[in-house]
Specification:
This protein is of the alpha+beta class. The protein has two domains: 136 residues, Aminotransferase class 4, branched-chain amino acid transferase, N-terminal domain (D-amino Acid Aminotransferase, Chain A, domain 1, 2-Layer Sandwich), CATH 3.30.470.10; 160 residues, D-amino Acid Aminotransferase, Chain A, domain 2, CATH 3.20.10.10. Helix content is 26%, strand content 29%. It contains seven helices and 18 strands. The strands form two sheets. Strands 1, 2, 3, 4, 5, 6, 7, 8 and 18 form a nine-stranded antiparallel sheet that branches. Strands 9, 10, 11, 12, 13, 14, 15, 16 and 17 form a nine-stranded mixed sheet that branches. Strand 12 and strand 13 form a beta hairpin. Helix 2 crosses helix 3. The structure holds pyridoxal-5'-phosphate (PLP).
Length: 325
């Protein structure tokens, strides 16, 4: 489902021109020679607006998502939206769709997109001189409707998810590159997700970052250009510190994962998944079950801490909530 209102700003004459208010959702007319259709000059963001316990609506970590959008557009040589314009367009889109924000655990998914519209098929080595920036909203339900269930994750050590220098860019082309490997692994192993660990070094899955946790430690791969710098990842690192865990951001490899499985927990983090427990890994024909295969207490504790921040149940000590209504 889509919210019925969008905010839109075409990039013409050197700037994004935003009318200052949301408009009804409608189809765009795109020139068949548009840069994005040929040369994949398209980026997006994904964040959520949550109904708060007091009934208001707040966007979670809006500024961090705007900064990541700016970085993605810069990496693909698209015109970079100004911070204040992008922020306002997101706030206005959510404000216009307030009537469809579900109660928690549902939320309003917020999807800003920037793509190159310049019509010139000879522009493979030239940036798009024009573009379109819009913000689309979708009311979404709980990823784990029917209860939190442990995931089965295939560990892929041959193929990377995408090219190493572009993993941190939230571009549609990265998802297209990962799709075939993901579908094949899902079909062969009946898996929920693929953990990309090229050469044995763990990066991320197709739509989430990766964590190990036990009673004392939280471990996640150190940031690099090879994978998306998840806002949820950063939130969980901060909350883990607040809760007194020793947080390690460093190289994590598949051998360590196997040793860890005997006593520790693992989970995937992302805007959609929040913190989703892994029950089983499949690697090279080997099935590795974490503990008893059920969601572990530390994963659920971190997940709960994050949800309470998102829905206004705990004090906003990090300044993460932007109230819209
Ligand atoms: C490839 C990939 N990695 C990680 C994430 C997690 O990022 P975030 O926590 O900002 O949603 C996502 C989800 O957007 C993703 O698509």
């Amino acid at each position: 489902m889509f919210g019925e209102h969008v905010t839109v700003a075409p990039f013409v004459d050197g700037q994004y021109s935003y009318s200052g208010s949301a408009e009804p959702l409608a189809t765009f007319a795109i020139h068949p020679g548009a840069h994005a259709l040929h040369y994949a000059s398209s980026v997006f963001e994904g964040m959520k607006a949550h109904r708060q316990v007091d009934g208001s609506v707040a966007i979670f970590r809006l500024d961090d998502h705007v900064r990541r959008l700016q970085n993605s557009t810069a990496q693909l040589c698209l015109p970079v939206p100004e911070f204040d314009v992008a922020r306002q367009m997101i706030v206005d889109a959510v404000s216009a769709n307030l009537d469809v924000v579900p109660d928690s655990p549902g939320s309003l998914y917020v999807r800003p997109v920037v793509f190159g519209t310049f019509a010139n098929v000879g522009a493979a080595a030239t940036p798009s001189q024009t573009g379109l920036f819009y913000v689309l909203n979708c009311p979404v339900g709980d990823y784990f409707a029917g209860g939190i269930r442990p995931l089965t994750v295939v560990v892929e050590t041959e193929s990377p998810r995408t090219t190493p220098q572009f993993g941190m860019v939230k571009s549609g082309a990265n998802y297209a590159m990962a799709l075939k490997t993901t579908l094949e692994a899902k079909e062969t192993h009946g898996a929920d997700q693929i953990l990309f660990a090229p050469g044995g070094t763990i990066t991320e899955t197709g739509a989430s970052n990766f964590f190990l946790v036990d009673d004392e430690r939280v471990i996640t791969p150190a940031l690099s250009s090879e994978f998306l710098h998840g806002v949820t990842r950063s939130s969980l690192v901060a909350l883990a510190n607040d809760l007194g865990y020793a947080v390690e951001e460093r190289v994590l490899d598949v051998d360590e994962l196997k040793t860890w499985a005997a006593s520790g927990e693992a989970f995937l983090s992302g805007t959609a998944a929040i913190a989703a427990p892994v029950g089983t890994f499949i690697h090279g024909g080997e099935t590795i079950t974490l503990g008893d295969g059920q969601p572990g207490p530390n994963t659920l504790r971190l997940r709960q801490a994050l949800v309470e921040m998102q829905i206004g149940k705990s004090e906003d000590i990090h300044g993460w909530r932007v109230t819209v209504s």
